[in-house]
Design brief:
Elements (H helix, E strand, L loop, with lengths): L8 H10 L4 H8 L4 H15 L1
Helix pairs in contact: 1-2
Length: 50
């Protein structure tokens, strides 16, 4: 089980993936396509796996 704050950064990504397509969800997913965002997600994954 993974816990996240609904409306927080991770929660927004989760909602973007499971919601019906929208401009807002597409914008959230596009924000992941930066090296800074990818580094943050990598770090979050490492923390969750610890």
């Amino acid at each position: 089980m993974i816990l996240y704050v609904n409306g927080g950064p991770v929660g927004k990504i989760v909602q973007a993936v499971i919601d019906n397509p929208s401009h807002e969800s597409a914008d959230q997913l596009r924000k992941l396509n930066t090296s800074e965002a990818q580094d943050k997600l990598r770090r979050i994954t490492e923390i969750v796996q610890e």
